[in-house]
Hints:
This protein is of the alpha/beta class. It has helices spanning 3-16, 23-35, 52-61, 80-88, 105-108, 124-136, 162-167, 173-179, 196-211, 220-228, 234-248, 256-262, 280-309, 325-329, 343-357, 362-369, 373-383, and strands at residues 42-45, 70-74, 113-117, 138-140, 147-149, 153-158, 183-185.
Amino acid sequence: MTQESADKYSDIKKEIGMHGNSPEIEEIIRVIETVAPTDLSVLIIGESGTGKELVAQAIHNLSDRNDKPLIAVNTGAIPEGILESELFGHEKGSFTGAVGQKKGYFEAANGGTIFLDEIGEMALNTQVKLLRVLEESEFMRVGGTETFKVNVRLIASTNKNLEVAVKNGEFRQDLYFRLKAITIEIPPLRRRKDDIPLLVTIFTAQFSEQENFQFKGFSPDAIKLMKEYYWPGNVRELRNFVETALILNKGDIVNSSFVGANLNIRSESRNLPVPLNKPHDQAERELIYRTLWALKLDIDEIKHMLADMQGRSYPSDNKGDYSTAESELIRSDEDFELKPTTLAAMERDMIKQTLQKFAGSRRKTARALQISERTLYRKIKEYGL
């Protein structure tokens, strides 16, 4: 890369707030620069907290539409019965509560860009109408008969595997093919851990300037431990942790003991290791086992507590710890089974056990599993829970 290109990429990084020197980030910047001047639809793939909205904002800002609106819509947070009205608007009396005519987000974004976050959660019937907008640049309001023309660029994002969703009948194949032509995949933070020291430095400087106080920084062993953490919340979690560390340490240096305690790295109590220096698929599999093991231990603690309350004993089979890895995990007792099985079966068991843990509360279960309530409802129905 020439110095001119490096400087240009650095300017784009500052513009969008996406920092890092890893090859993955450099490639994302290159694709943003290439596709921004076009009107092509873009699909952004990445876990929660990786910065999907930052990429959408950058594409809009670097496009010829930057003087027009960028409308961001979290489709996963809007109930299915309301989303269609929010996107396309509705006519008076089209449904109960429609006391007047309302314009939708597509009309509001006319001439600009609409960003549909978590598009994988969109209902199939709404996907049909979205496809029509993409192919014909027109739509009708809910309850209306008039066709409206619209000039909008679509950027969509998801943390789901849409190819799998298509195979499962959860996402339309034609819409998927229409969206995937330009795909930007944002890697999770655990796949670019060498960027963590830089990100910590940037977040520290930004927050220190914002709050107007001096900070002595993070110790080398603290940074090392942060690089070993799995970061399920990705860059968003890292930023929040840095800001919390600055506040709680009152400007003093942050050491590894603070990092270990506040990131809940329970190496002493439960010996649940973070997957390090391993292939992505293996790390993902071990994380699932680690989560199941922690859940089993939590359930056993509840069993012991209930047994104590009832004046009886509960025999525990939790000998050893996670250091024996999968062989220790794949065993069973009369109430909890962990056997070699498919990922779907493991997912079903995890959802079932989490529902039990939270006394059937779907809101708490969805939050604990870090999925939307809509996804949880669908999984409950799919697995007959």
